[in-house]
TrEMBL record:
Keyword Endoplasmic reticulum in record: no
Organism whose genome encodes this protein: Kineosporia succinea
Start and end residues of each stretch annotated as Disordered: 373-410
Stated name of the protein: ABC-2 type transport system ATP-binding protein
This protein's UniProt keywords: ATP-binding, Hydrolase, Membrane, Nucleotide-binding, Transmembrane, Transmembrane helix, Transport
GO molecular function, one term: ATP binding
Residue stretches making up the ABC transporter domain: 638-865
Segments traversing the membrane: 600-621
PANTHER family assigned to the protein according to its UniProt record, in alphabetical order: ABC TRANSPORTER, ATP-BINDING PROTEIN (PTHR43335)
Amino acid sequence: MIARLQTRRILLPALILVIALVAWFLVARASSSSAEASFTTQDLKVDGTPEADGDTVTLDARLYLPERTPAPAVLLAHGFGGSKDSVAGDAEDLADRGYVVLTYSARGMGTSGGLIHLDSPDYEVKDGQRMLDQLAARPEVEQRDGDPVVGVVGASYGGALALMLAGTDDRVDAIVPAVTWNDLRQSLFPQFAGGGYPVRDEVDADAAGVFKKQWTATLLGSTLIGSGGSLSTTPSADQLKNLAAGDAEQAVCGRLAKDLCLGYVETATTGRPTAGMLKLLGESSPARVADRISADTLLIQGQGDSLFPLSEADANAQAIAGAGADVKLYWQTGGHDSGVDTEALRPVVASFLDSSLRNGSVDDVPGFRVDVASGTPAADTTAADSRLRTSDLAPGVSSRDASGGVSRNSTPVTRLELDGNAQFALAPPGATPSAITSLPGAGALLNALGSSSALSGSSLGLNALPGETATFETAPLSGALTVTGSSRVTVRVASSADDATLFASLLDVDEDGGTTLPSQLVSPVRVTGLADATKDVTIALPSVVRDIPAGHRLRVVLSTTDQAYAMPQEARLYRVELSGDGILTVPRPSLTVTDAGSTVPWGGVIGLAAGTLLLGLLLLVRRRRGAPFDESLADVPLSIENLGKAYKDGFRAVSDLSFRVERGQVLGLLGPNGAGKTTSLRMLMGLIMPSEGRIRIFGHEVRPGAPVLSRLGSFIEGPGFLPHLSGRDNLQLYWRSTGRTAEPHLDVALEIAGLGTDVERKVRTYSQGMRQRLAIAQAMLGLPDLLVLDEPTNGLDPPQIREMREVLGRYAATGRTVVVSSHLLAEVEQSCTHVVVMAAGRLVAQGRVDELVGDGASVAVTVDDVDKAVSVAAGVPGVAEVHTADGLLVVQADLEGRAELVRALVLAGVRVSRIAPQRGLEETFLALVGEEN
């Protein structure tokens, strides 16, 4: 009852808040749209650029004409998957302010024809120029020196078009690109180490960054079904038409151009880009033309944006300013993760256009504006102390001196010393479990959940495990500091593979040890050329805005996983240490507080309120799951009760699995391929969650990141080791990387593993058997009470298998417990005391190995008189199916029957020299699972 009342206290206020905010938001929208219009509209059909096969393209457009003309014009572009209707509110606002506005649905979207080429200079940019032709021919548009006075405004997809159009056509006088990209290669395959991608040169696909799979799928994947970028459950008419015409590839691609579509499909399949894909992305990038832009520019970028972070706007600003154009930069709160609120930006956009198109100068516009939510994550725009801060020039952006020369604006920095030894970070096989830092369109929700003490499982989000991270930290700050931009750190990286994939982040750590990941952002880093070598890498940490109070610390975290990105699927081990002077360089430009408040984007408020509601629901679910600790099982190493795992596609891997493992047992987990063994082990280790049932280790329920998992040691398919280090060094660095302060018992683990003096040799000289024993020793560090091994004898020859059997026996003899999954049945029979047999996801049999093999087995008895023995055996209770084979007496008998048979034979004068089972575990296994397969 008390738990129910507490849950209601969480849910009821959150539900009321959500309903009230939604109602207010809808009423405000309705009232704002009811004002009398001061403009007229005309719908147009404009010929677009023909497709490569000659197909004509018609673009659906709308012209907004104010009461007074001629007037400056604005070409207004929409975001990806939208249409001219998506920006109708922005167009009406500009028309009300006296601008001629032209909107249109981009090719492949809305009711416009053609295919989506992703802002290609050969298609979408040329379409934009045709729209400029429309404006230039209209008498309602103001002319200056024979050209129309026109600005281009757009967000995201439309923002990139504004930049590329301005870099291609000098008729554009002003642009306001918002939350958009500089280089699509960097946006979708980010690389925050080194100098990034060359502007116009082709890139070796092997050198590309890390695939941003979730956002790319959200954008491009949504065009494969439906039309106009809108996700649908049924194919579009164009897809059915292409399928009927025999063009299966274009049928799959929907409205996405085939070359772009096939490049995406291959990339999504392999996790790595093709050279052709990178070439297309590079051609669709403003980076190629930004240094040719002469138009007045206001770049608006969101701080809470894992798709196009602040660094993309910075790159655009530096290129445009370097060419001598006037560039203004505004870092607003929000972004793609929490929604782009263009309505809140309308006054900012209109003011800039007035200065540029009407007054002919943007000198009165601050060079740099940034919203700072003091002491809170930057994406939390509901904070009352959110302030607008300004400076004359954006950090790192060039300026012109009195003589007309261009110089780079040097941003002041604070240098903070980091502390931390060299550390190991494990990249788990299958890249699971993975840290969760960002989800497309759900940044506000993750901020709410990530800061919750009830749900935050780690410093990187909800489920990153300590062994997957390397961390370095400053001392407590002596004074307050506002981080404004991208901090830098240099590390040295080694890898068990030829390359390394890492995700770097900067965390705010308060006095109590609580952590906040500003805007849930990470910087992906891919380091190549690491075969038998190390490499120093300078990493640009996420560009963020955050007030850090005195007494807080800054923590640099490098994780091996992130759910939003494609990662190597094989197990890897990385060694990371600080390089050089171990300094964290933090940008701190001089800013002036302009006002005490800022416009609140209500979409973000509603998102956070919904996050609060969801948090309450999650807490309710947690309470209903039952007690996480069962005192009656406190001394039981492993208890599995009614365990099941079903996947979203309906496949059920495990059903109603129950068994216990006691102290000192060596349990063999057996089953054919597809029996559910690996799934069961992954649930046991907290890597995936069961659909039903419970797993308890010493009475504590297993969940991802559960503290009781520190009592479990494991390895799957053998972890990677750094080949140029000794076995001992590998083990010591691994233990430090786990963050545990307990004694590792390294010498004891090495003695049990039996490596001897070989532990001092470099791992590159090890045989496969020695690597396996080193892996066992690593799993034994800290002498875990429960050791879980998946195929520990893989790749070993018979003498090595015998040694591994002795290792497991010695470990179990210490009173600890071992669980082994293996396909070598004879080996399990010799090394395990107990066995669990699975088939088709279910338990088939369990028990002691000798009992399982002996129960119902055929027994061969060597006697001196076979005929007499047959007649004696036929009358012994518990003996059945008496016959002879190869001069032996063969009977079917249980354990008691065997003993009674020997007694009867001896009493009858028959000499018995040997009795042995006629079948072993392999025959028993086949008999048990035969009917299941």
